[in-house]
């Protein structure tokens, strides 16, 4: 039996990627080892093209000796596809089905996990403001990537996106003129500071960090789809630990807890919009 047979290209590529991810975890502390392979493969090859590096092993050497390359790869791995009132029907359902439940609470803690550049955080702040709940709410907006958190704190978004965001806002049940919430500065829309006075932006890695509070609402949308089943279960358990009894969990349209280890601990509030209430 020949144990020295050459590896085919795909097998070698997978070995190189696994070594790269293990090295990143050991040296930088970021754990991408259970992200889905197609997602990682696309992002790694994109970074290699940008850096003009011919092999994955060459990229590994580069990131260990140039932290700026690591930062760029971290940006590649960050999930930054977002917009204000993304999937307006989710926010409309939240307004109609969750807000009445929250009115009786003396205070409200909300965690936006994997908040990216913060558009959904501002969306939630606007919704709660219009429903008279914002003053008693503290929103924790977290992401593993500090650079996207800085964008969120600044609250400036490209002006050309406001047409789409206005359309989303109105479809989500918005009650005012969306333009009341920002002022125009050159090519940007700068959102009013009162929308972040009750927001804490902080770095938190869903993969490696632990629970840090107990929440009435956790929003973690369009994040799990990039994780394999092992990591999904781990993160679902983290969110479960962080959610109080009768708390609300909001997921993305392509996500769900049906086949997870914590499925029996929840009841569906809105099946289509993936809103759940913890019952045990």
**CATH A-level architecture of the largest domain:** 3-Layer(aba) Sandwich
The low-confidence parts are none
Estimate nothing, just give the exact number of structural domains. Answer: 2
Distance between the termini: 55 Å
The CATH class designation of the largest domain is Alpha Beta
Helix content: 40-55%
What fraction of the residues are assigned to beta strands by DSSP?
A: 15-25%
Question: Topology, please?
Answer:
Blueprint: H1 9-28, H2 37-51, H3 56-65, H4 67-77, H5 88-102, E1 108-113, H6 119-130, E2 137-143, H7 146-154, E3 156-158, H8 162-171, E4 182-185, E5 188-191, E6 199-203, E7 215-220, H9 229-242, E8 243-251, E9 266-270, E10 275-278
How is this structure best described in words?
This protein has 280 residues and is an alpha/beta fold. It folds into two domains: 9-77, no CATH class; 88-278, Rossmann fold, CATH 3.40.50. 41% of the residues lie in helices and 19% in strands. The longest helix is centred in the N-terminal third of the chain and has 20 residues, at 9-28. The mean pLDDT is 94.
């Amino acid at each position: 039996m020949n144990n020295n047979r050459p590896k085919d290209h795909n097998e070698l590529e997978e070995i190189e990627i696994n070594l790269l991810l293990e090295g990143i975890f050991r040296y930088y502390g970021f754990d991408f080892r259970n992200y889905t392979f197609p997602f990682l493969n696309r992002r790694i090859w994109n970074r290699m093209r940008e850096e003009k590096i011919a092999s994955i092993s060459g990229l590994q050497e580069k990131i260990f000796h140039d932290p700026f390359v690591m930062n760029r790869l971290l940006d590649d791995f960050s999930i930054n596809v977002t917009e204000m009132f993304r999937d307006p029907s989710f926010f409309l359902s939240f307004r109609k089905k969750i807000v009445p439940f929250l009115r009786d609470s003396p205070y409200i803690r909300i965690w936006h996990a994997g908040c990216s550049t913060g558009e959904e955080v501002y969306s939630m702040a606007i919704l709660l403001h219009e429903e008279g709940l914002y003053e008693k709410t503290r929103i924790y907006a977290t992401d593993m990537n500090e650079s996207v958190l800085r964008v969120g704190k600044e609250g400036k978004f490209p002006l050309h996106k406001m047409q789409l965001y206005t359309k989303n806002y109105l479809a989500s049940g918005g009650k005012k003129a969306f333009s009341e919430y920002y002022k125009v500065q050159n090519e940007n829309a700068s959102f009013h500071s009162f929308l972040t006075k009750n927001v804490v932006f902080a770095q938190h890695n869903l993969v490696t960090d632990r629970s840090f509070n107990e929440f009435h609402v956790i929003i973690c949308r369009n994040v799990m789809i990039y994780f394999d089943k092992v990591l999904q279960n781990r993160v679902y358990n983290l969110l479960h630990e962080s959610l109080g009894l009768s708390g609300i969990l909001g997921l993305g349209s392509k996500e769900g807890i049906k086949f997870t280890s914590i499925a029996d601990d929840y009841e569906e509030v809105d099946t289509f919009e993936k809103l759940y209430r913890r019952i045990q």
